[in-house]
Amino acid sequence: MTLLAALALAGCGSQVHSAAVSPARTAAQLRGSPAPLAALHAQANELLGGGVRAFRTRLAALHGFPVVVNKWASWCSPCQSEFPVFQRVAVAFGRRVAFIGLDGNDHSAAARAFLHGFPVSYPSYFDPSSAIAGAIHASTYFPQTVYFDRSGRQVFDHLGPYENVRSLENDIRHYVLSAS
To answer: Per the domain annotation, does 16 fall within a domain?
Structure first.
């Protein structure tokens, strides 16, 4: 029974592959980022603790920059399918937009293993009890992407996975860059 559940969660044998940009190209594209964004890049692919307080402190430090928060979990098939989209877009927009992951309802070992296979240019906050997700009204869906404008106001909530780079780029341009 456990094997059948694992196969179902894995998408019946379908494989999602990392689309991580090479470390050298990532470094080149993100070089010269403003200090608050560079601080995010310095914690690339890390799983951070600290709960709601640490998360809110980070959002406050990013005041003046648009922020895209992607809630995911290692066990979530749709989350897995959209991660390659975030791998690409976070590097392309990383000098102008802050990206933060939010790993919810997960086990830290599984989350770290997932991040090892799908490295991103930004950190994720570990949120096993969905306290952070609840604080930003994102506790229901997986995946879920929440957008904050430069003033820190939540402006958009995307439920479900981003299926391609273009969709995510369009939402970033529409909801947080055009309002700048």
So the answer is: no
Q: Is the dihedral of CA 157, 158, 164, 166 positive or negative?
A: negative
| 169: Cβ contacts below 8 Å, ≥ 6 apart | 89, 92, 93
Q: Are 66 and 155 in contact (CB under 8 A)?
A: no
The tally of domains found in the chain comes to 1
Question: What's the rounded Cα separation, in Å, for the pair 66 and 76?
Answer: 26
Q: Structural domain of residue 157, as residue ranges?
A: 22-177
Q: Is residue 123 part of a domain?
A: yes
Instruction: Share the mean pLDDT of the chain.
Output: 90
The first and second tokens of residue 11, run together, are: 């998408």
b/e for 22-38, b at 16 or more Cβ within 10 A? eeeebeebbeebeeebe
Q: Could you report the per-residue pLDDT of 10-41, keeping only the tens digit for each?
A: 443 456 788 877 888 999 999 999 999 999 99
Q: Is residue 104 a contact partner of residue 142, using CB atoms and an 8 Å limit?
A: yes
Instruction: Give residues with Cβ within 8 angstroms of 150, minimum separation 6.
Output: 63, 64, 65, 66, 176, 179, 180
The reply to whether 15 falls in a domain is no
